[in-house]
Every structure is written in structure tokens, then in C-alpha cells.
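[job 0412] stage=fold_complex status=start
inputs:
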Amino acid sequence: DAGVIQSPRHEVTEMGQEVTLRCKPISGHDYLFWYRQTMMRGLELLIYFNNNVPIDDSGMPEDRFSAKMPNASFSTLKIQPSEPRDSAVYFCASSPRVRETQYFGPGTRLLVL
Amino acid sequence: RKEVEQDPGPFNVPEGATVAFNCTYSNSASQSFFWYRQDCRKEPKLLMSVYSSGNEDGRFTAQLNRASQYISLLIRDSKLSDSATYLCVADNTGGFKTIFGAGTRLFVKA
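[job 0412] stage=fold_complex status=done
writing structure:
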């Protein structure tokens, strides 16, 4: 079974541009998480979904960030407009049930110039 | 105070050594705890869950101390391949919002 799939793996963009990150969770997993990792702040939970419904988005840094999960097999994280301080590795993870292991995707390395 | 705190290290140890990491968490209501391992430029992967009674997986032992609100990871007979960053995880409520520590870097030398 394929693991969590993320695309693109690398993204370089200019400040002000819209960035869309994509995630396909493991089939049958009810929970999906978006994280951001930087050297300064470590791994931060941005938002998580349960059965496609956003449960907690308190980690989303500001209104420029939005996330959707239109169905059980797809989620997007969008940044509009992007800023250099958004440069980070963005991970998507999924989990089958509450309080169980989270399986991470390979991440998207975002660089905003 | 951070919700989950770890000594960032780095810990530099020779092969065969025993090394221990501690991690403290601030929310006494936390119910689930994990150790993840992250290799350089890779995603975090589960190393082991941490159970109330403590648990062991080969060379790795995890302990939970609820009274003092810390968890620990002990690695015996360190291997070169154990070199990585070890992330401590706790949920911060009765729900499923997980908080990762900043990680402890381990370097095992030949």
C-alpha cells in the first residue's frame, strides 16, 4: 500500500504568488494533519481533519493560509499571497484512529523568494 | 513554557554506548505519548509508543512518569544507524491535537 503522497516535493516561488500543496492520505485513515517544520520553530501542527471535516485550525498562522479536504483521498493547503517567512517544509500526515500513529508524507520543501 | 520540551543536544556518543533522552510535557491531561525518529531531510517516522507501564522494543526502552510529567527514551548498544533526531510527542488535550517537541539530535560515532 502506498504511503502518504505529497506534491510537489519542491516548490520555489516568488513573494506574492499563490502556492498550493497537495496531499493524498493513506486509504482508510480518518485523520489528516498538516504540519510545518522550520529550524526555528520545529514541527508545528497547522490544522487537522477528521472524516474530511476541519477540527482544529488554531495552528494556521494567518488568513493567508487555508486548507480543504473535499474528499477522503485528497487535501490541499494553500498560501495566498506567499511571503518569504513561509519558507519551510510542509508535511501531511494521516492516522487511522484517534491517538494512534501518524504516518507522514515525504514533505514539500517550499522556498519563497 | 513550551508544551513539550526536549534537550536539543547534540548528543555525541561512541558505538555501543547507552544514551538516554528526557522530554517534559506541560499538560497533565495528556493521554498519549510517542517517540518519533527523523533522519536528515526525511519525514518523521514512529519509533515507539509510550505506555504507562513502560515498554521495550529491542534496544529501545520508553518510560512515562506522570507524576513528574516526563517521558524518556533509552537506547542501548548504540549503532551508527541510530544517528538521527528523536522527537517526543504528547497530545495536549483529551483530543487529538498532537504537540511535537523540537527534537534531540544524536550522533553515534565509530
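[job 0412] summary: Chain A has a mean pLDDT of 95.
[job 0412] exit 0
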